[in-house]
Design a protein that fits this description.
The protein is an alpha/beta fold. It is built from ten helices and eight strands. An eight-stranded mixed β-sheet has the order 1-2-4-3-5-6-7-8, sandwiched between helices. α5 packs across α6. The longest helix has 16 residues. About 45% of the residues are buried.
């Protein structure tokens, strides 16, 4: 029993690294850059930068991937938005992909990675400091909520399949990922995870951060068939958020499976959100 709990905790704070299998070129984007930047605790993070077109007046979206993934995770969505002119910064979080770091904290220290990404964009003359958006998936969504609450330069936020808190979802996650009963395994996983990361999981509570994002716009996206992070998380986050806010429930989608479940509606909702708050120059007043 102890070994099972310990091994599960290790997968959370030391997920196996994966590397991108494709680059933006595979999605028809010929002009992009390999970039890197440093966090406040001196870790080098690696990423791709895709320049915005003149039609969006310097608007760039930062994409934040989920646990055990890498910068390729949201590349298809970045390419979708780039068709309308929006730029993108996709990067590997600490302890993921090609970035430095040896421990994952499920959104706590990763909010600082987003701070470093924002600072990188602010250093570029082709990026408007008033048009920086943030988009995250799962752990990346939770990270995006924590980061946006602390980074005023983020002007619009989209989160997909985000959790309210680690603590509230640990029991469900243990069952979904391992098939083990929540008790006694969830408390043991939490204890081992805290020993490995030095993090009190009670500190990772995006539901307490989300209200600080308003009056900046927020779009929450969740699948109604998500068995890893149940839909109740999105509903609770929506209730805790301030205006303007939008909740898009994707019928038939599991954990992040939005483009397969309903690609046309998904593109419509996502693009309309950014067009509303980062309008194309020929739409701007």
């Amino acid at each position: 029993m102890l070994w099972l709990a310990y091994s599960k905790a290790l997968t959370l704070v030391h997920p196996a690294r994966t590397l991108p299998g494709e680059t933006p070129t595979a999605y028809g984007i010929p002009a992009w850059e390999e970039v890197s930047f440093l966090t406040a605790d001196n870790l080098e993070l690696r990423g791709w930068f895709i320049s915005p077109e003149t039609s969006v007046d310097g608007a760039v979206i930062i994409f934040v991937h989920g646990l055990g993934s890498n910068r390729e995770d949201l590349l298809e969505q970045a390419a979708m938005l780039h068709q309308y002119g929006y730029g993108a910064l996709l990067f590997d979080l600490r302890n993921h992909g090609e970035s430095q770091g040896s421990v994952t904290t499920l959104g706590y220290l990763e909010a600082g990675d987003v701070r470093a990404a924002v600072d990188y964009l602010l250093s570029r003359p082709d990026v408007s400091p008033r048009r920086i958006g943030l988009m995250g998936m799962s752990m990346g969504g939770a990270t995006a909520l924590r980061a946006a609450a602390r980074i005023p330069e983020v002007r619009a936020v989209v989160v997909e399949a985000a959790y309210t808190s680690i603590e509230d979802n640990l029991a469900h996650g243990v069952r979904a990922l391992t098939g083990l009963p929540p008790f006694p395994f969830a408390p043991l996983v939490a204890w081992f995870g805290e020993l490995q990361s030095g993090l009190d999981i009670r500190l990772v509570r995006p539901v307490d951060d989300i209200g600080k994002i308003a009056p900046r716009p927020l779009l929450l996206i969740h699948g109604d068939q998500d068995t890893l992070v149940p839909l109740e998380n999105a509903q609770a986050l929506y209730q805790a958020a301030g205006e303007p806010k939008q909740l898009y429930i994707v019928t038939g989608a599991g954990h992040g499976d939005f483009l397969n479940a309903d690609p046309i509606a998904f593109e419509h909702v996502l693009v309309d959100f950014f067009k509303l708050y980062f309008p194309l120059t020929d739409q701007a007043d």
